[in-house]
Amino acid sequence: MKKTLSFTLILSLSLGLLLSGCGSAGSENPGAGTEKRVVNICSWGEYIDPNLIDQFQNETGIKVNYQTAESNEALYSLLKTGGANYDVIVPSDYMISLLIEEDMLAQLNFDNIPNFSLIGDAYKNLSYDPENLYSVPYAWGTLGIIYNPTMTGGDIDGWDALFDPQYAGNVLMIRNPRDAIGIALMSLGYSVNTINTDEINEAYARLADAKQAGVYQSFVMDEVFDKMETGEAAIAPYYAGDYVSMLEVNEDLRFVLPQGVGGSNWFVDAMCVLKDAENKDEAEAWINFMCSTEASLANMDYIYYASPNQGALEQYPAYYEEVYGAALDPGVFEIMAPSQSVLKHCEAYLTLPQDILTLYSNLWIQMGI
After folding, report:
1. Buried-most residue among 5, 27, 108, 356 (CB within 10 A)?
2. Per-residue pLDDT tens digits of the chain, which is 369 residues long
């Protein structure tokens, strides 16, 4: 599997830091006391073509320290507790909005990011950063259901399957509160951005009841890859790009993006620079590099998430055919980059008021994950 092998290479790029996860980045600049330019990056697992790291280092002489976090909430906790020293982070839309509100992000100097002009207008000035002062889109995608019909006995078409006792012990659930409670909200036909506490509590109760009934084999993040690829589990809510990666290993897997009552979630992950970043110029150099059409095409081919670089998005099917000598399955491309007719059934997460965030946190603690 090309991605697993390449991800091992990422581990070797920053072994001492990554063995302990994102929080092991420490409080000292890895370049301090030397003339070596560095950029410290924290993103998600399986979310970068490691060849691009090598290319950037060779072209710029800037050393890349690349670490990962398992969720937006884990990243936020590290940033708030001072357990990390990053320059570039790649949070999701709703988390970017929160970080802006808390004055944790630096305004970007777009003179250093000329490739920002290559980003499609549909991914600029979105609700989480309406003036586009703090972020540059990295990738976008959707949240859906990955399932194995050879294990479920047929197709699945909606969120209700994730709460159905007939699949007890074969269902995985995402191990972060916004997605998990959000899935329960969508299954009930409620907005993922509701601030109605009765609706949120009803969604929590549905999730907790399913957990108590043994529906969930476990709550996972990137562990989902092995479990779904090997047939250890039959159903998992996860992200479309990761499904395409899993499909390379297990051809039995299918993906559905619920479009009925409740719809689904579409998201944008974006590159941001922390306000206290020690290597801001290097951070903006990295962002500019990743926005180039060449890097965007290579990265889209590796991570299977849609690029916000409009040219790369349009060129990808031809790029794929040139690289692999075979046409890209149109159905797979539609999963990677859904059309507007599909996205109209999806809702982006917005930042919630503090009292609602506190409710989410308390409910998640109560869930006992």
Report:
1. 108
2. 233 333 333 333 333 333 333 333 333 333 344 468 999 999 998 899 999 999 999 999 999 999 999 999 999 999 999 877 999 999 999 999 999 999 999 999 999 999 999 999 999 999 999 999 999 999 999 999 999 999 999 999 999 999 999 999 999 999 999 999 999 999 999 999 999 999 999 999 999 999 999 999 999 998 999 999 999 999 999 999 999 999 999 999 999 999 876 789 999 999 999 999 999 999 999 999 999 999 999 999 999 999 999 999 999 999 999 999 999 999 999 999 999 889 988 999 999 999 999 999 999 999 998
Angle among Cα 47, 52, 53 to the nearest 5 degrees reads 85
User: Residue 309 carries which DSSP code?
Assistant: B
Residue 238 forms beta bridges with which residues? 144
Residues in contact with 280: Cβ distance below 8 Å, sequence separation at least 6, in sequence order: 87, 106, 109, 273
Residues 94 and 117 in one domain: yes
Token pair for 42: 């924290």
Q: Are residues 362 and 256 in the same domain?
A: yes
Answer yes or no: do 194 and 227 share one domain: yes
Contact 295, 303 (CB under 8 A): no
CATH number at residue 259: 3.40.190.10
State the Cα–Cα distance between residues 131 and 166, nearest whole angstrom: 48
Residues 235 and 319 in one domain: no
Q: Which residues in 196-220 are b (16+ Cβ under 10 Å) and which e?
A: eeebbeebbebbeebbeeebbbbeb
The first and second tokens of residue 358, run together, are: 């506190």
Q: Is the domain of 110 the same as that of 205?
A: no
Select from 99, 107, 95, 60 the least CA-distant residue to 179: 95
* Spatial distance between the Cα atoms of 337 and 310, rounded to a whole number of angstroms: 11
DSSP bridge partners of 235: 147, 171
Q: Which residue is it, tokens 């007719």?
A: 341
Q: How far apart are CA 124 and CA 42, in angstroms?
A: 22
Domain that holds residue 304: 2-138+269-335
Domain count, the chain: 2
Residue with token string 């989480």: 128
